[in-house]
Amino acid sequence: MKESVFTDEENKIFNNKNKIMKTERDLINKTVIKESPYTNIEFMFEIRYTSPKGRNSYYKSKVFDEKHLRNSLIAIKEANHREILIKRERSKLSHSLRYDILKRDGFRCQICGKTANDGIKLEVDHIKPVSKGGKTKKGNLRALCNICNSGKTDKYSEHGIN
């Protein structure tokens, strides 16, 4: 058995000190962190503007509580994630796939029937827009002229002609 450098009395003091520190930590965790009264944190944003010649001055402020700010940050994070997914989905439309869709559709707009010989530019369109959950797959792609495609934008109906 290894002999202790400290006396029995000193060992008791160290053991008691460790017990006291542990109890102190437990009390702090229970009372301060878990059971403390809710503190309402508010953030105030101010916008001030003065015209270059100093004739007009504008001021606006808005106060956000912690919950509203947290929800706003979550919404921003989700919007950024959605944008990344949309960009990733659109990047799947390769030149080869674009050509295959145009060839499949006879190099003709699927809405008005015009071709490049009629002076229009053909584009490949997602029938169900990527912004509404559409995928870049042959069954969801079609050839449209630039006029029909710009009029359609991201409109989509589950039950209608798209």
Helix segment tally: 4
- Helical coverage, percent range: 40-55%
| Widest sheet: strand ordering | 1-2
Question: Structural class, judged by helices and strands?
Answer: alpha+beta
Write the element-wise H/E pattern from the N-terminal end onward: HEEHHEEH
The major β-sheet equals: 2 strands, antiparallel
Report the uncertain regions.
none
Rg, alpha carbons: 33 Å
Coarse morphology: elongated
Strand content: 15-25%
N- and C-termini, Cα separation: 86 Å
Number of strands: 4
Rounded mean pLDDT is 82
What would you say this structure looks like, in words?
This protein has 162 residues and is of the alpha+beta class. Among the domains are: 42-90; 92-152, no CATH class. Helices cover 43% and strands 17% of the residues. It has helices spanning 8-34, 66-91, 95-104, 146-152; strands at residues 42-50, 57-65, 122-126, 141-145. The strands form two sheets. The protein has a two-stranded antiparallel ribbon with strand order 1-2. It has a two-stranded antiparallel sheet with strand order 3-4. The radius of gyration is 33 Å and the shape is elongated.
Keyphrases for this structure?
162 residues; alpha+beta; two-stranded antiparallel sheet; two-stranded antiparallel ribbon; 43% helix
Topology:
Blueprint: H1 8-34, E1 42-50, E2 57-65, H2 66-91, H3 95-104, E3 122-126, E4 141-145, H4 146-152
